[in-house]
């Protein structure tokens, strides 16, 4: 009986083992999904790094010179220009209503050259009480915020930014931003922008420095004054470039109605010819 019982136990164990070994094969779905996630993640990281590198290789680069007019118009009046300040990045101003983009480091090249960087440099390196968000402008002790700040005669003042590609000479309507102001790229020489708080339906004026932008840029040492004008009917576009050394005078206009701008350090003086 003992031997028979043992034989039965062995047989049952064998059958049980057979059932186990003949079951469904282990699923590969889960490890396959994990592998796919890892591969896609690595691909996205590589793509993001390459895209960022390409953005940093865009204009402007180190040693480039870009000049853009800028003005701040709030509740019906122009506010003061940001005073001059030095910066390690190279995006600064000379109290002239002009953004000077002369990158000294990668923080100011390519996609890093933005309106947000300009305000950040003015605040952190210039020590000025200025900041800009999508709905609020803080500017030398004054705050202009959508939904809170009131302007006389305006029901619902809003913050907008107007941008002209060729601000000194164009008569075209500007491009209007109603958000993402910090990301606005400063990569077009001769452009201009107005930060505006007020009537959301009103036309936005050009910045005050736009009429003299070419001369102001030349005085800063960019090396040339570039002027463009609307061609006459049947003519082609023309542009005149006059080389100037840093600190030299830049003269533009007709002989009978000329204006001459001379540099003395960081100051500029404009006089009209008699």
Oligomer: single chain
What's the number of domains?
Answer: 2
Using the CA coordinates, give the radius of gyration: 32 Å
Which structural class do the helices and strands define? alpha+beta
What count of helical segments does DSSP give?
4
Q: For the terminal residues, how far apart are their CA atoms?
A: 135 Å
Uncertain spans: 50-57, 222-274
Mean pLDDT figure: 75
Global geometry: elongated
What does this 3D model show about the protein?
With 274 residues, the chain is of the alpha+beta class. The protein folds into two domains: 66-211, no CATH class; 214-272, no CATH class. It is built from four helices and 15 strands. The strands form four sheets. Strands 1, 2, 3, 4, 8, 9 and 10 form a seven-stranded mixed β-sheet that branches. A three-stranded antiparallel β-sheet has the order 5-6-7. It has a three-stranded antiparallel β-sheet with strand order 13-14-15, covered by helices on one side. A hairpin with a 2-residue loop joins strand 14 and strand 15 (267-272). The longest helix has 28 residues, at 29-56. The radius of gyration is 32 Å and the shape is elongated. The chain starts with a helix and ends with a strand. The relative contact order is 0.12.
